[in-house]
Predict the structure.
Amino acid sequence: MSRVRERLASRAFSLTAVVIAVLWTTPTLGLLLSSFRPEDEIKTTGWWTVFGSPHVTLDNYDEVLFGSANASGRLAEHLVNSVVITLPSVLFPLVLGFFAAYALAWIDFRGRGALLVGIFALQIVPLQMALVPLLKLFSQGWLFLPAWGLTGPARFTHVWFAHTVFALPFAVFLLHNFLAGLPRDLIEAARVDGASHGTLLLRIVLPLAGPALVTFAIIQFIWVWNDLLVALALSGGTAETAPVTVRLAGLAGTRGNEWQRLTAGAFVSAFVPVLVFFALQRHFARGLLTGSVKG
Amino acid sequence: MSFDAVAQQPKLQHLLQGVVAFAAVVCLILLALHRGPARRRGAAFLLLAPALLLLTAGLVLPGLRTLLLSFMDREGDARVGLDNYVWLFTDPEALIALRNTLAWVVLVPLLVTAVGLLYAAAVVRSRFRALALSLVLLPMAISFVGAGLVWKFVYAYRPAEADQIGLLNQLVVTFGGTPRQWLVESPWNVLFLVVAMVWTQAGFAAVLLAGAIGAVPGEITEAARLDGASPRQIFWRITVPLIRPTLLVVVLAEVIGTFKAFDIVRTMTAGQFDTGVIAHEMYDQAFRYGETGRGAALAVLLFALVTPVVAYRIRAQRSAG
């Protein structure tokens, strides 16, 4: 009796799993299939009819990436912006966070505990708290800081600055947790041998810190690449500096029914993070637990 | 075809300059570390200075300034006392944003955790565990903007006489209903945005919970089974209590993430049709309407709401190991 019930329960469980998996993949599948359909078909018939009359085209991608009309997206240029924004926004907090985490984990100095708690606590501050004053700082200067008055591609610097600052508390938190767990004997032995902090940092701690650095880099990469708020507030919104997400959100707003562009555009923007996701899935999953405090 | 390769050069040049400048600073620090003061303090100062400088200029001072701005008028010139906060709790549009945020913060963590737990429990002993988990985790890699588009397409509306292009309306029509504008009809449209958010987050919950369920010792569940406990009893009386710390971490992480939800609202409705939430209203006030004071007050409110949850979460995470 209990055997039968058990089997039924496990059936029901498997069925639930299948239902959830289908519910979770169908919407994406619909958008993906649509992105390869001709414009007039996307707008007049459902994507599920594609199986009856398969007309496949790459026109939508061509138009949304390279189309010359103003409304067409020009996502290729925005993709360049996304790359230019993302690389330094990952590199800068990675290096600076690593430096700070090393100092906090392996150098004894007065006030270390308080500093550690202070930096960790900054994780609480939502980035919304800093956006308006940052914009003012960049445009007008503030207190002793001069106006940056940057225009054109130099606006990228604003976005790098903001992403770096917003990522630092989390970077220090993540990396410090890892570095503080390294074997004390190893560090002490090197120190007794007369190694300077420079040598320790580069030769001994850096090679060991690989996994933590990769975890942070992935989380930060996906975060920055997918970010909308910081870019919307600080990047200026033109083809000169705005990343793909900003352009895509703009297309969704002003031309909310041009599905031939929106479907293809969504996958242009998703392509890179999904690639990273599949290539480094193990790190990604491990980073989730530590990563979710951020922002 | 238009791709202006020449227009891309200044960007790449700027990228190069930025990275080179940064590398120069890093090299200086490392050089000073080798040659400079051998005393501990000196080394600690060199390594911490850049991070502390950035955090002070970019987060601490701006944060304090936002606090001050929340007591100022729209230009940030004159003091207005608590006016912005009064506006926050009396203006109809602001109240709707508060109401919606409350709905989001209750529903998203609840649904995400429920779906995640169910799915995790179902796939954790399966041969296809890894594949099954990555299927639901994938929406996390797609941006919120992309997720917003995915669901906007599901909700797409065509008049009853035309063919439907949105999946939901097609289902409704198939079962004899009339198509509806899901994102327009308040207040239910808020729920349809919540569904999109849940869709992006459930994989996160499933992965963490599958890890926790997998770590429950087999002897315990086996012993319970031998004592005659049904699978359901084992799940609710043994597994769930044992993974409680992880459940708590998931719920709190979702609460925090949901408070800050901005992108999905922005992409799907831009806050129209009474769908605004605090984080989105903050952006609108501060950056679209130039109402700096009100935007600042909304940011401060967000901060005040998130702080206790984060503090609690950090404690919970410690005990979850």
In short: Residues 113 and 205 of chain B are 6 Å apart (CA to CA). Residues 5-81 of chain B form one domain. The mean pLDDT of chain B is 87. Chain B has two domains: 5-81, 84-320.
